[in-house]
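## tool: complex_structure
## caller: assistant
## args:
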Amino acid sequence: MKLTRRMTLAAFAGMLALGTAAPAYAADLIAIITPSHDNPFFKAEAVGAEAKAKELGYEALVLVHDDDANKQSELIDTAIGRGAKAIILDNAGADATVAAVQKAKDAGVPSFLIDREINATGVAIAQIVSNNYQGAQLGAQEFVKLMGEKGNYVELVGKESDTNAGIRSKGYHDVIDDYPDLKMVAQQSANWSQTEAYSKMESILQANPDIKGVISGNDTMAMGAYAALAAANRKDVIVVGFDGSNDVRDSITSGGIKATVLQPAYAQAQMAVEQANDFIKNKKSPAEEKQLMDCVLVNGDNAAKLETFALTN
Amino acid sequence: MLNKLTWPILAVPILAMSVGLSLTACKILPTPSAENGGNAPAFNPDKMVEEIWAAKVIPYLQQKAGPFAEVHALAKTDPAAAGAKYGNPKKQANSPWTFAVRLEGKIVAANTQSRAATIDIDADGDGKADARVQIGPAVRGTALRDSLDFIQFNDFTNQIDFAQFGKSFNIYVDKTVLSKLPRETLEGRTAKVLGAYTPGSGQDLPLVTPAEAEIGPKP
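## result:
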């Protein structure tokens, strides 16, 4: 009796093990995990990474964590369970992500981070991030120039759990605060969201009709803010964004939003997959874990050259 | 007999199953700790800059800097060679070169209307400006930080700390050097600067951030 029970259990376990092991014999898998594709920036990352993975002969598993650290943790489990050879990750929080990436590492799955850093080194193989501070300084310098170094302005900040929201704000203020005649009358988070930026901008404008400019932590919020300003017949307000999306490009070329800062999202994601490939095939890590990529100012002079988060020549 | 034989074989899938179970059953919750600044509460960039300025920064720039015309010409034709000689060879692979330079010449134009005030310097005596020098109080960029080979991004917790450190250089140089420079009738005077610049960062002329600066008397 006891023996048969053991045998059944063992057979069941054997089947389970076979079942989970099977995908490993197909093409090697790379998991690509990003925030929601509603924001074209994250979509460009996923598309760039997937294209490069396929080009290098991998199967791609594209997932979104919606900036939810618990969901991200589950997706990492999925990637491990599916036998992924590497994870390309735009993460859901600088502190919360450390344990999730450690978990993947412990299971033998290397992680290659893009866009956002985590507050730990030696856990991921690579952290390829935009130089958000340098980019924010470019955006702020252009904003200061457009404002003529004086006037009231509003800052829209990104999602608090995202390190980049804080660093862009810091980059903006490190430049703008050197000009005492520039006065910030409101600073609010619109959580990277276009609709939230629209409604926040509406109420800020009611309380502060005398504003001259809006500096936004990303392009989707800049789009929302500009739409609210346009609806209130205040197209005179100077709006500057961050990311370099096609939406903002079109707004710049048609005389709406004044400037943005391009992050090379597509190239960054592709570079991460190349480094993952090098690690999988040759066990070779990049020279440095944390790698910064510089951003480029986009305004009326070069907006026409912008396409899917890359400047053409 | 049969029993003894099968057990070690069966143990493998059971082990595999239990590992699988423990992984999916484990949920990591976010730690509600401080978002900015990370885990370095004692991080004081202003103090760090103050401590290394006279002991390391100035001696490094003095030893590394080349005459502006020479550096700029080499940077145009062979950036890698210029980088090896006047730049920080340990810089991030994707970052542009930042070069240490000496600049001496005549002030041909000045913009003191902006808080990011600048002077344009003619270094080769042709009457035309060759470089623009920041004289504060608003100082842009991170050229001073980026010119030093003993400062690495990977030594910092995150971009925020690294950025604050860069800003601290600008604050320090404004406080100890730039704020003491004259602001009136600058054109026609001589200027002597030791500093750093990143080609392409200025909109027209190369933008030099000084670590040391002298402006001569009115002509």
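## assistant note: Residues 13-24 of chain A have pLDDT under 50 and may be disordered. Chain A touches chain B through 57 residues (CB under 8 Å). Handing back to user.
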